[in-house]
Design a protein that fits this description.
The chain has helices at residues 2-24, 33-40, 64-83, 107-121, 132-145, 157-161, 174-186, 203-218, 235-245, 256-268, 285-291, 319-330, 336-355, 363-374; strands at 50-57, 87-89, 92-102, 125-127, 149-151, 167-169, 194-200, 222-229, 249-253, 275-278, 299-302, 377-380, 383-386, 403-407, 413-415. By secondary structure, the chain is an alpha/beta fold. The protein folds into two domains: 50-172 and 308-386, Rossmann fold (3-Layer(aba) Sandwich); 175-302 and 402-415, Rossmann fold (3-Layer(aba) Sandwich). α7 (174-186) packs parallel to α8. The relative contact order is 0.14.
Amino acid sequence: MQKRVAGMRENIKTVKNRRQFMKAAGLAGTVGVAGVAGCVGGGSDRGGDKFKFGVVTSLSGDLRFGGEVTRRGYDLWKKTVNENGGIDIDGSSYEVELSYADAKSDPSTGADAASRMISSERVDAVLGPYSSNVTLAVAPIMEKNRTPHISGSAESPRIWEQQFKHTFGTVPTVTLIAQRAAEEILSLDPAAESVYVSGVNGPFSKATASAMRDAAENKGVEVLAYDLNPSDTDWTNVVSSAKSQDPDLHFHGGHIGSHVSLLKAADQLNYDPDGFFNHYGVNTSSFKEGLGDGARGTFGATVWMPDLERSGGKLFGSAADYAEAARAEYDSDPDYTQAASSAAGVVYQQALEELGAAPPLSDTQKSKLVEIIEGASVETFYGDVTFDKEGEFYHNNTSTSPLPIQLQDDNKAVVVGSADSASPANYPVEE
């Protein structure tokens, strides 16, 4: 046995030296090296010239707007890391490849796509879905297959309550973001006395609406209604109900599509409370383009903006540098989900360099990678990323502080509230 192990080690060393020589000679990818590398990686018939990441997100369906935001974040990380030479493993560089699967905004479709991706694509790790309900369906697949999985978007507390060993999230749970931002908005002068809370009846959206309701109750503000609806509801009915109760503020938990539909219905029915607070997406191009001038004045929440002072760390120099790269690539400002999706890639990059294993990864190496990610502290343009190791937010990055924002002139988002860097709020909102 000892002779066999020694022989395997010598073979691995030979393969590595040969790969380095062939890269230097411009012959990387030649038949033979890839086949041997596949054996080294744990039996995969994949070539070993790139780290291959699967991505399961919503590229169609009613959550496609958010799915596209995650895609931009993941793609920008891949483009940038490859332009900077790839991921360094013991002096050899390996580029990143992304393989996408469309969850079609449906949990069961996402789970099936994840299963097929792992069995047929033989990915080294997975970058996760936009939505929480798809993430809740995909995470058990990652557990079964012992595959590392980082989401740059999903925020439902239900994900972290499940204590999934292989799933991590770079965005703090909405329980923290929505409640803290809502409390700040409820403290604006003049203080609101009543609020109408609506939302979509899904894991993320329900948790958002619930956190908004909790914030109002904590502040002693009357909650006139807590109204959850299917994603395909007629929002004019919700607006009619809210208008009849005449709240000071309207809080809504949902995704970009429902935000746009709700505010369009409010405009049609001349429903004008002192302000609307829609937690996610108000700083995305999809929201702004969907409403045009009607987006102005909307409150939202964020954990990142281009002009925040955040440490740069690996790959992107600063928050402003990342935003400049995003604008150059997509001709639009990035929001915190796009940034957090790119940061998920940076976490993988640092963890893989610490692991020190060339692709494709064996099952043992994937398990070690999970251990490294769990204990990692990664300095990024998005902020420091660390993951809770126990408790109700297990494997969630809760270290990033949430901030209330508002779209003001030219639909530019600014921080409002009590922060030192806050701008004056347009409140009560005047068009």
